[in-house]
């Protein structure tokens, strides 16, 4: 039998390797921005067209590259940051795999113009589909100018799997923000289709956060600071009123590198225990500085995960420091952490795992937010399946035949926490009237007009958009007149609202728009319409505390019985539960 194993040609091998590095346009943005930061630039421009599908250009005023280095930078496994295996564990810069530029060049048309300060002319390199085309001298400014055009032009199967421009551009903004938030001493600019999106000046961390996310965030930020010598923690958390149900303003950085950590996110969440409504996520911008040898940044292909040598210590430090700051700023009861024995170990200059144990929970845990209707923690509301939003909820036929008597007056009792009890035929049910009302509203949604009449406001409302919200507004503004809105985007990203839907109270307008802007993407026009209607129903739905009169509750329960007495909302939350009174007999 003849031999069948062959070595792949370099350009094919590079295309395969590119799959790890270049997943979408945002992957290229991340690599090029980090290279510009490593080149000691203090001004970086990012220019994209068609959400990066046809152009990604990064221009920096860094140290530039020599003629030889410019050519070698596109070779696989070429890097300026590693000379030995030990260097991998002491990386203080960003990219270091030595494959990024080779991978990018394998699936795009790439041009580089670069010049060092002391050289009279720079060098210009052009590579297409991994094939070197030419290198020649060029007159150019000091620094580097990378242009990546026609991404995946030679791999059409991969190009067709890219999302629409709104989605891909959102990913680009995410990567841009992560780099910009980590380097407030660098001036950043972002242009999309020749339109300026961000112009970030140099400044402090607070200024950079506000410039990225809008000035309405500034009064909500609480400073976090603790320097123990071996680790420095600083940054900001937002007050509870800045928490949201969707992720987006949660940022960890270590030594200037963005990373994700479900473990440390839990530390932040625990610090806010008792201060947030169930399902809400605090906003935070937290920066760690410690010896590079105590972290491993190479455990994830995109380098977004980090392994810490003393992870349990950092968890406890983060949780306690945030709790203390919340107390100092009168957001939570202040605690005396100086006398906490569990904190004493932090003040050792070189902590070791041998004398440190994981934080020990208190003997008694009190859940201040106990909700008998809560099901397993879920983010279903954030990841709404728009195609299933209005499907009929599953009924509970075995319960329906219990309610044959139309008179419910003597069967309903209100509890102090807003829930109601329904007694019927020897069984008791605890009711969440707010969720029941939402189910009823959803069941009648087909009778709601898609288009809504508008009412003019006597005085226009103003809503200050950050750049992310501005981008979202532009993607949906053509739909808004159908729902009764008339608004214009004025200077300084001020959205001036002149007309709102007739049924929308003026006090509800801003909150309603914020909910619309929270969604990361709208795949189709139909998706947006459905989500709008979903938020509209939520806005018009009463909470369990809004039902005061018993006659109103009786009518709601009767309507709910007519619907089939379903137990769950469309996103899986319980509308009622059966109270097991028989189990209480053993308590006496």
From TrEMBL:
SMART domains: DNA_mis_repair. Signal peptide: none annotated. InterPro entries: DNA_mismatch_repair_CS (IPR014762), DNA_mismatch_repair_MutL (IPR020667), DNA_mismatch_S5_2-like (IPR013507), HATPase_C_sf (IPR036890), MutL/Mlh/PMS (IPR002099), MutL/Mlh/Pms-like (IPR038973), MutL_C (IPR014790), MutL_C_dimsub (IPR042120). Gene3D superfamilies: 3.30.230.10, Histidine kinase-like ATPase, C-terminal domain, MutL, C-terminal domain, dimerisation subdomain, MutL, C-terminal domain, regulatory subdomain. GO terms for molecular function: ATP binding; ATP hydrolysis activity; ATP-dependent DNA damage sensor activity; mismatched DNA binding. GO terms for cellular component: mismatch repair complex. Keywords: DNA damage, DNA repair. Residues 209-327 form the DNA mismatch repair protein S5 domain. GO terms for biological process: mismatch repair. It comes from the Bacteria. This protein is involved in the repair of mismatches in DNA. It is required for dam-dependent methyl-directed DNA mismatch repair. May act as a 'molecular matchmaker', a protein that promotes the formation of a stable complex between two or more DNA-binding proteins in an ATP-dependent manner without itself being part of a final effector complex. HAMAP family: DNA_mis_repair. Belongs to the DNA mismatch repair MutL/HexB family. This is DNA mismatch repair protein MutL.
């Amino acid at each position: 039998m003849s031999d069948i194993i062959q070595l792949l040609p370099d350009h094919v091998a590079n295309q395969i390797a590119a799959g790890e590095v270049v997943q979408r346009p945002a992957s290229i943005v991340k690599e090029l921005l980090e290279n510009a930061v490593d080149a000691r630039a203090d001004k970086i421009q990012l220019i994209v067209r068609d959400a990066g599908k046809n152009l990604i250009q990064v221009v920096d005023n860094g140290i530039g590259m020599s003629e030889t280095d410019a050519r070698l930078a596109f070779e696989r496994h070429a890097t300026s940051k590693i000379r030995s295996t030990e260097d991998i564990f002491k990386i203080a810069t960003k990219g270091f795999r030595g494959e990024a530029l080779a991978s990018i060049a394998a699936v795009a048309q790439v041009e580089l113009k670069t010049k060092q300060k002391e050289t009279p002319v720079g060098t210009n390199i052009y590579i297409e589909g991994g094939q070197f085309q030419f290198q020649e001298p060029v007159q150019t400014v000091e620094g580097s100018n990378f242009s990546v055009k026609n991404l995946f032009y030679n791999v059409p199967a991969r190009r067709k799997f890219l999302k629409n421009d709104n989605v891909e551009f959102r990913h680009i903004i995410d990567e841009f923000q992560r780099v910009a938030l980590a380097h407030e001493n660098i001036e950043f600019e972002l242009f999309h289709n020749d339109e300026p999106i961000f112009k970030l000046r140099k400044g402090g961390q607070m200024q950079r956060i506000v410039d990225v996310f809008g000035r309405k965030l500034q009064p909500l930020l609480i400073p976090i600071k603790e320097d123990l010598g071996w680790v420095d923690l600083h940054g900001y958390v937002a007050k509870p009123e800045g928490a949201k149900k969707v992720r987006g303003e949660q940022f960890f950085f270590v030594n200037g590198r963005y990373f994700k950590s479900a473990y440390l996110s839990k530390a932040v969440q625990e610090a806010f225990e008792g201060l947030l409504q169930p399902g809400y996520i605090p906003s935070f911008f937290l920066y760690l500085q410690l010896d590079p040898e105590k972290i491993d940044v190479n455990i994830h292909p995109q380098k977004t995960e980090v392994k810490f040598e003393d992870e349990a210590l950092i968890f406890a430090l983060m949780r306690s420091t945030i709790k203390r700051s919340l107390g100092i700023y009168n957001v939570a009861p202040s605690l005396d952490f100086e006398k906490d024995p569990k904190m004493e170990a932090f003040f050792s200059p070189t902590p070791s795992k041998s004398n440190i144990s994981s934080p020990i929970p208190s003997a008694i845990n009190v859940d201040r937010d106990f909700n008998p209707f809560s099901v397993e923690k879920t983010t279903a509301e954030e990841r709404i399946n728009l195609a299933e939003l209005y499907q009929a909820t599953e009924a509970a036929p075995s319960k329906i035949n219990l309610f044959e008597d139309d008179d419910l007056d003597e069967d309903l009792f209100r509890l102090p926490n807003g829930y109601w009890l329904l007694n019927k035929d020897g069984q008791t049910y605890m009711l969440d009237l707010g969720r029941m009302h939402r189910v009823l509203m959803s069941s009648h949604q087909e009778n709601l007009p898609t288009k809504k009449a508008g009412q003019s406001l006597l005085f226009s409302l103003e809503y200050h958009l950050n750049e992310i919200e501005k981008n979202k507004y532009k993607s949906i503004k053509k739909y808004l007149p159908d729902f009764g809105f008339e608004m214009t985007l004025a200077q300084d990203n001020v959205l001036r609202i002149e007309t709102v839907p007739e049924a929308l109270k003026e006090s509800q307008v801003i909150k309603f728009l914020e909910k619309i802007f929270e969604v990361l993407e709208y795949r189709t026009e139909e998706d947006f319409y459905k989500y709008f209607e979903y938020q509209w129903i939520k806005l018009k739905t009463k909470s369990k505390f809004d039902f005061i009169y018993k006659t109103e509750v009786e009518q709601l329960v009767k309507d709910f019985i007519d619907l089939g007495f379903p137990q769950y909302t469309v996103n899986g939350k319980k509308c009622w539960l059966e109270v097991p009174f028989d189990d209480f007999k053993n308590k006496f």
